[in-house]
Amino acid sequence: MNVIQITRRDFLKSSFFAGSGLVLGFSGFPVTSKAIKLSSIPPYLRIDQDGGIYLGVPSAEMGQGIHSTLAMLVAEELGNDMYQFRNIETLHHPDFKHLTFKKWTNSVLNYQFTGASESIRTWHLPFRKLGASARLMLRKAASLNWEVPESECLAENGWLIHSVSGRKRSYGELVELAKKLTPPKDIQLKKPKQFKLLGREIKRWDTPIKTDGSAVFGSDIEIPGMLYGTVKHCDFCVGKIKNIDDSETKKIPGVIDVIILDDQVIVVAETTWTAMQGANLLKIKTEQIDKSINDKNIISQFKNDLDRTGVSVAHLGDINSAISKADKLLELEYLSPMQAHAAMEPLCATANVNSQRCEVWAPIQTQDFAMMVASGVTKLPEENIQINTTYIGGSFGRKFEYDFLLAPLVASKLLKKPVKITWTRESDTRQDFFRPPSLVEMKFGLNQSGIPVGLKVKIIGPAVSKRWGTPPPWFKENGYDWAMTIGMFDGYNLPNRNPDLSKNYSIPNLKVDFVPSDIQVPLGAWRSIGSSHNIFALESGLDEVAVSEGNDPFELRSKLLRHNSRALAVLERAKDLSDWTKPSEGHFLGMAYSDYLETYQVQVAEISVTSKGKVKVHKITCVADCGQVFNLHIARQQLEGGIIYGLTAALKGEINVKNGQIVQSNFDDYPMIKLKDTPEIKVYFMGNHRSPGGLGEAGTPLIGPAVANAVFAATGKRIRKLPIRRKDLA
């Protein structure tokens, strides 16, 4: 990656770059010739003459604090205060491809999107380099202006200071001189001991605008002459719309049009509420439906598929010999249900289409996918389409999909006016791309000391990658699906899939297989993807192994991870901070460990269980080694949010299918953890300056097994299926 200067001639091609001053951008990322046509203007950092700073970033802000953290990385190297950022915006640009996924998929998935907890891991160095380049250019400008050595010019808090005379000038005063200079090629970044911002608790940049209502979310878009609408879908997981009766809908004053697509009907009106009233009156007849899809049949299918040969995920030693010679065999099964994303912001999007141009405003994780849909609907060349990413009111993987962009694009094209489509909560819930259900079978072979010498695993579940328009190479090869196997000795080493198990539990004989078992229900990426069910199975299973032979769960894991110093340090600190050996009277503890996303983490749950089987989670102690932490405040929020999200799935969340239809529809039958049920959460970080691990999804998969293991400590009853129901414990 190189940092280049953008001239006024360049950035005047876009209204977003209007203004003057020093403008720097990225250049040098691999892009296709087709993508280059989208824009000649690279992603940028702009410093105006009044000192205001504007930043374009690759990642969508959906509550994870990425805008603030990327700005901090720039500010640390540039030497400015966070308040000097006037605007931070997600830009759609060919230089912002997801480089990690490109590598993992041999360039098959070479798109711009936000996901896999990779934003900081991918972009922290480029954004530091961007800030450092601007700092060096401003220092050079100051030295020329004052006719002093550059080494005497300091950049601090938005000011250039002459260390000898004390003279000072603001960044804005020197940008005209700085922009005449060539960006430096040899850039030395700050050492950690020089950090003034990074590693501290810095308030989020977007808190003020989210508090006063000026932050623009998808539902906030308003355009003169805009129409409003909603959608009503086919009620069945499998089925198409045959015909509709919209006579009652069209009687409602303000309803403008009813548009029929294969699996949904668009109602457009003068207001959103009018459109929703009209949609409620639609009578839809469907065809090609399948009423045989239900929970019982799905579980039965998974059970039958246990006999099938799977695709290899990891293989060490001689598993058959180890199992046959083991002193004890422990056979376990764990079942995880479907889950909805249930983001606070229902799906919404706005499109403005005419014969020459198309503009889209939407809370999306996948800018390039949005471009594909817009191009497909409008038949316009990509250079005539603009994708605007709004703030996202929660996503958890749902807005990685792009199905909700179709309705506003079609409606706007037909009606020749801008159209905003807003989904109801019921549509958002029932027409989700759910977390796949799974069944995990585990066979532990133990020696006389109760230590696993062999482990045989079968993961049964749908291959999520199958539905992608361009399946990744690992799936096309033989059906292997990393999105379903991650978290179970997967090695996180793609695309060749020769798993690096050097950091995992040391079990000398290991065989992990994945058996694809597809179901006719829309499925997708859910926060922490396959690790949510695999870590539940593995960590619950290891707890059973430990307790069955009288071993302490912490001690067993320490023996299996004795080769991993970072894991051992996290285990030791978590055991101490959670008061593992002395829980409060009437309270019980359970723990779980993972290295998901290169974040070494332990969670300890402190719970109690009433005589009627009600589980109360009192406290969660979380210790994490995620490498370098850039903003302690945001990092802690990420783990806390992930824990609460996972706790909902562990205690409440479950999507059911009956007669081919999704049962749940709103928060009354798909409830969330409420504030009164939220435990105290203590998060501790192991301070170091290693490469950063992922945090956005890291907190979610551990809380389920930690609570389940604590429930066993309290009741003596093992949890083999989530969510934990009161009837199972009473």
**Tally the helices: what do you get?**
21
Unreliable sequence segments: 8-18, 28-42
In round numbers, the mean pLDDT is: 92
| CATH architecture tag of the largest domain | 2-Layer Sandwich
Return the CATH class of the largest domain.
Alpha Beta
Physical arrangement of strands within the biggest beta sheet? 11-12-9-19-16-17-18
Rg, Å, rounded: 27 Å
Which fold name fills CATH's third level, the topology of the largest domain? Aldehyde Oxidoreductase, domain 4
Q: Give the structural class.
A: alpha+beta
Write the SSE topology:
Layout: E1 2-5, H1 8-11, E2 22-27, H2 33-36, E3 44-47, E4 53-57, H3 66-78, E5 85-90, H4 99-104, H5 119-146, E6 153-156, E7 159-162, E8 168-170, H6 171-178, H7 207-212, E9 227-233, E10 240-245, H8 247-250, E11 255-260, E12 264-269, H9 272-280, E13 283-287, H10 295-305, E14 311-316, H11 319-325, E15 328-336, E16 348-353, E17 358-362, H12 367-378, E18 385-389, H13 406-415, E19 419-422, H14 425-430, E20 438-446, E21 452-461, H15 473-478, H16 482-485, E22 509-516, H17 531-548, H18 553-560, H19 565-577, E23 588-594, E24 600-609, E25 615-625, H20 632-651, E26 657-658, E27 661-662, E28 680-685, H21 700-715
Parallel strand pairs: 4-5, 9-19, 17-18, 21-22, 25-28
Antiparallel strand pairs: 1-2, 2-3, 3-4, 6-7, 7-8, 9-12, 10-13, 11-12, 14-22, 15-20, 16-17, 16-19, 20-21, 23-24, 24-25, 26-27
